[in-house]
Amino acid sequence: MNILKSRKFLIIAGCSTAVLIAAIILVLVLRSKDAYRIVKIFEVDGTASVERVDTGSLDPYANMVLASGDRVCLDTGEMTLRADEDKYIYLEEQTELVLHATGNSEHSKTKIDLVRGAITNEIQNKLIGDSSYEINTPNSTMSVRGTIFYVRVYEVDGIKYTNVVVFDGNVSTRLVYKDGTMADKEVSVTKGSEVTIYEDSKHTDYVSDPAPIDFEALPESVLHVLQEMIHDGSDVSITEEEIIDILNGLDNGNYKADTANTGDDEDGISEDEGSDDSTGGDSSEGTDEGSDEDENGDGSDSTGGGDDNSTTGQTGDNGSGDNTSNQSTGDSQDGTGDNTGNGNTDNTDNGNTGDNNQTSDNSSTFTVTFMYNGSVFGTQKVGKGKKATEPSLDPAQSGSWDFDFDTAINADTTINWK
Known about the structure:
By secondary structure, the chain is an alpha+beta fold. The chain has helices at about 1-35, 220-230, 240-250; strands at about 40-50, 55-60, 70-85, 85-90, 95-100, 110-125, 130-135, 140-145, 150-155, 160-170, 170-175, 185-190, 195-200, 205, 210, 365-370, 375-385, 415.
């Protein structure tokens, strides 16, 4: 009898122990699920790499789990990172960042050091508890609670810039000085606004106060990302119809670069200057300097740079837009653009290029290009009859823009720094 009782006790004890062990394992499993964060490459298509401490270079692939401290680079193509199932990071080409992700779902700490390039951030759910999402650039830091925004870092003539564009929510920004200290003042960028920060050899500051977003200056890839977000139900500060209009404009060659952004072409002219290769001539030579607007409206060409009867891409400029040839025509012998070539039609351009300061009056907006030392310092899109705005940031400590900013803009205009 005693033996039976002992066996029964051992069986009960063994069962209890097994239940206890199972419970402990279950708790550990549940805790381990929340003990670390999953940050991975959601999509990748192009030339990219991942540099991992103590491991070296890795070839990225879809669903690749990233470790905190990984340096992610995208040279060409597309790449999207995903953290915690509700945070997406869309990389632009030529982007390099270092990812720091710690904590768990309730106490997530995400920090991105954006070394170069640009990223679009989509935080679908508002951060809870003491969770944080922070982006650091060479001259600024920003934090959010839940939002959709774009950050780009770039450099022009030795000046470093950070552009922050907020499509939804609110982003708090602070300046970071060369010695690593942060400004006490915090500048909030709200939905539909953007701000640019600059750092030169002496100063770090905001180019201006937050201003409405210039969507035409955004990369096409960002517009497509916003379009997908709208389809998914996000309420961003632009409609799909407006995006489509901008994309159609890009397809038609009406590209606008963001202010203070330059194309480092050898001839100092960015690709968005509106030149058309179909003219058969090199419009980058002799078209920027020395050109004047035709104030008389008689179609006279004030550049004096075209050969008589030439048909290699030069057009006779006409201040009113009338009698512009459908094909490239040379300046007539009397220096006027009237009735040159054949197939003349009123107010048509059809790809012809002439002086950078001349364009058909059919255009509702014109491009104002700011030039510094032979390079494009920035561009503006100005409505017909409106006035150009003097850039808030000067390209040099001495000098000024050689232009009267009270002048109405009625043609593509080049303004030089003197």
